[in-house]
Amino acid sequence: MPFVLPFAYLLVRNAEDLAGLWGTLADNSLVGPLLRSCVLGISVAAAAGVLGTAAAWLVARTDLRGRRIWALLLCLPLVIPSFVGAVALIAAFAPGGIVEDMLGIAWLPDISGFRGAFIVLTLLTFPYVFLPVMARLRSLSPALEESARLLGRRPLSVFLTVVVPQARAAIAAGALLVFLYVISDFGAVQLLRYDTLTRAIYSDRLLDATRSMALSLVLGLLAVGIVALERRSSRVGLRDHARGGSPLIVPLGGARRGVAYGFLTVLIGIALIAPIAVLAFWAIRGLAQGSPDAMSVVGDPGLIAGPLLSTVGVSVVAALVTTAIILPIAFRTVRRPGRLGEALAGVVVGGFALPGLITALALVFFTLSAPGAIGALYQTLPLLVLAYVVHHGALALGAAQSAVASIPQRLDDAARIMGKGRWQRFAGIELPLMLPGLAAGAGLVLLSTAKELPATLLLAPPGFSTLATKVWQAAEMAAYEDAAIFALALVAISGVLTWFLVVRPALRSWATPVPGAAPTGPEPPTASRAPEPTTP
Amino acid sequence: METLPPHIEMCPAVPTRSDPRGSALAIRGVERVLGGKPVLRGIGLDVPAGTVMALLGPSGCGKTTLLRCIAGLDRPDAGMIAVDDFTVSGPDCFVTAERRRVGMVFQEPALFPNRTVGGNVGYGLPRPERGGPRVDRALALVGLTGTADRMPATLSGGQQQRVSLARALAAEPSLILLDEPFAALDAPLRAGLRGEVRRLLAAAGATAVFVTHDQEEAFLIGDQVALMLEGRIAQVGTPDDLYERPASRAVATFVGDANLLPSEAVGYVAHTPVGDVPLARPAHGRVEVVIRPECVAARRGSDAVVERVEYYGHDAVIVTSSRGCPVRCRVMGRPPYNVGDRIDLEYVGEPSVAFAP
User: How much is the ipTM here?
Assistant: First the structure.
């Protein structure tokens, strides 16, 4: 169980200086950052929950055109690292920024502090809600909604009283991921100067290591507490028995259709197009002005291709390893629910809530203090991959759990009756049926790994750089044109991967054949229920 | 017995009863507690080789749990199960489902959606025989020749269930378990499949346990019927045993329609509200006599008043009361009486049974 390492690290380090720990906990200065982390986490989770659910309903359950394109575009903000989003917002709205330059507007809103962090994080994290809720809405049986309509409810009332309660578990799971993402985020709050726990942990880590460790422990406990709370409330969740039939599609009339298109367009515009446009603006300006940095990046394809290949390679490996490690835990929690499974899942989710920096520091600490050969792992790729696994396991867990749960128990029983051992049943029946769901989870891990920064900076072997570290290094040296070019490459490659790993598997289940039709031709895997790439 | 199945080494054969021969399935004192609630309470049952035992009972009586214990998908808390005279489940041994080699058809078709029909049927066969003549034979048996290359999702529900049956038959197991296999199908399809399954099981010479909550289905398919009530076997016998000689009030009321008329018994005769009724077993004093509605004949008279007529098409039930006691009386075709008519009732059946009230 590598997932306990970050927590073990926090406990060990804090135990070394208990007096310092109590001092920090008793200190009033703890209250401010803790409160700000909570406020930011809750408000972003709520806003992302509303945005994600509304967008998911429009895409999954109305007759809007271009469903697949909308689904892809609405997932893509996921691929923009939070520090890139923050940089783009600053570049656009800061005094002397693009908006002031181009439009000549002198009065601009102040985007530093809570307001900016809230906007950036909401726009970049709502896909965590959008994806699972869209999958859930597609799989709901129409019977309940039709009954509600027949009982005289209007569409909005049906949505609020019938659809939302049935999708509640998916919405809550997505919002939980958003909350955990926000409280562990460092890039956006640092650049936008909003003093949360993570920022305090970072700024204290050298001058006041005791306080930094104590605050990390507080952050970890906050995350675990929220996860425990969510698990308790989701246990009384609704289970639908009536499955099957294609979902109800609501036709949108003229004006409403316009509003729907407008809403989605604006959402994608500010969450996806705007940051990309800012990056593109810089990159083009750099090239046009003949900045030597930008020219050298373009002139030598190896400068981009190297980090690009490293990014893809290490992300793919991390995604595969994470899925393989998570799968037994998913089986345990779904097939034999109990305290052990709950505890395992809780620890995995906790790993996601701790900042990547803590995970990385924990691995460094344990590797270097371990005896003999293990120490040699420091600054090697296996250790880096392990950090990604620990930090992103939660993203794969939810998808793996729904994949396991989507296999009817009777298929396993039937295979057992026919004399198949555990391994044969897994390889011959379960794995093929779970693949689309597992791919969605692995896709999320892959994307998160591709944009991961602190652990990569700390643990990467000398000379190994990913696109994310290149962006960071360029930005640190104020070479914004270079940063923009690397960031665009990161967004582009992530977009391609999102399409193949997250969106396409989710959409494939929309075209499941009706029994009795299409007697010939290759069959899509019929059990590929729309995956729900989230924690339970 | 030169070559023993592998599980025999672990599980010595235990004599299941004084004369175990001919019993393909023997169950002794099986208990199972699920969630703190006793679901199976001392089940004992013998199924002779080559016969079909219908396991009948209302939902929640434990019949599916018993079937899962026989299959090895669930382990009893106490008691013993033997298949072909080899103990597969007992206090010291438990043969897992994958090593029991029984066939099973589930309530909903449990076909592997990632495999073709042929791939499903051949899944339990040794590798060289998959896709061979055994698969084709099994499919031909259920009337689905030529579907081997199709995917299960392209078949109708009834066809899918037939593939499940072919899959269970293909490995030629000595014991086949069917768990309400028609429950999810339409009534007309169900009626057709019942006859077909009866014929297929007979043709295969297989021993089978068929779980159902439908009395008609149990009577039609079972050579014998075991009625389960609240985790116990209430009675085992041929369908006419259960119908005409129920062992208890509960059996009498669950199997078919029954009047339970308060009566005075004297030896082999009971004085009932519909006249004197012969008894199969002697009784004395105040009893309740089981009287099937079709064993009561009605004619115009004065004793009783017709209160309601339930018309079913092929027959009808007249609801009346005689000496203050409600009586149901079945007549073929359309009844010649209307509500309010006065009639006389008479018992016309075989000797019946009486229970203490």
Answer: 0.74
